[in-house]
Design a protein that fits this description.
CATH class of the largest domain: Alpha Beta
Structural class: alpha+beta
Radius of gyration: 22 Å
Largest sheet: 8 strands, mixed
CATH superfamily of the largest domain: Gcn5-related N-acetyltransferase (GNAT)
Number of domains: 3
Distance between the termini: 36 Å
CATH architecture of the largest domain: 3-Layer(aba) Sandwich
Amino acid sequence: MEQLYKGRTPQEDYEQLIEMLDTVFFAFDREVPQREFLALLPKLYKREYDPCYNNFAVKDEEGLCAAVGSYYSTLHVGDETLKLNGIGNVAVTLEHRSKGYMKDCMNLALADMKEQGADLSDLGGQKQRYEYFGYEPAGLDVDFRVNTTNVRHCCGAEAKSGLLVKKLNANDADILAQIDALSRSGLHYVERAPQAMFDILCSWRSVPYAAFDGASFVGYFILSRGGDSCGELKAVQESDLQRMILAVLETAESKSVGITVSPFDLALQNVLLPLCEGYSLDHAHQYNVLCYENVVRAFLKAKAACYPLCDGETVLLIHGFNGDEQLKIAVKDNAVSVEKTTETPVVELAHLDATRLLFSLHSNERSKLPAQVEQWLPIPLFGYSADAV
């Protein structure tokens, strides 16, 4: 009988893990260099970040058969702190497919999330594939598209940012520290380890830049490798946001750039709205809510900090992926409370239905709620691409 190991990847299998991931994901792309996962997400796959510990694997006598990356981080939403898990590199070698090994690895990761007390998990991938494990497209990305014609009409034909833009490298410790401080100043952020900051900003082959007015740090932005999208943009002063947008277009040398904005960054949205060619709303990621009480409280309070919410209350019974939660959610004078209750529920929901009702762009179940409660929804889960796994 075949002997299988199922658990965290042994440390001695680091090289094999990276080789397996490169083979599974890039074997048919001859233009992709070797060690592509190291280039794609150095923040996860460099040896010093311990990808073996963070990967649950199935292994037989010949080596690794499958692996699933499971990475934890600390998410701050207003004055609330959540334990966030990201799932990535779901891989099964060609000769070991259809044996249930991916399910084994995912179930190991989910069991660990429950044991570790994770509040929320996210991933990217095919919708139905991950529904089996409790994930559902949800949250809110706000994507603006700005082009040079927009700038000419709104800012003038000769408009320039007047900023000095520097492409960053790993030795820019002082600048990276200023970026870290600025990234933590918002209503919503993921803690980024200082020693990994440059690698984090380079996630998904992105290129980070810092902008200066003379010697003064003005802000930073992250461009995709092709330069046609900006995954993150922040300025020290709101008055410099328009100059930062101009700097993005100047640096990208593109006539049109997409800019992703947090739903909580109203200042940047307000600058982009009259300037942009258009914008779209989309789901941020696929999410598995492991603790509805904590996640609803944190993100609904953050929404209340940005928008006025109607007074109201409701009681939901949620048959969640991590167990039942019967919650009373209330808003009074824009103050949010979420607590366990024994009161009779207004609506009873299965796990995926609850995720859709509370956090997705559309849900048929919302019509069962009072109108003042429906006004709170959707609750905008969000995460920058630099923090995704």
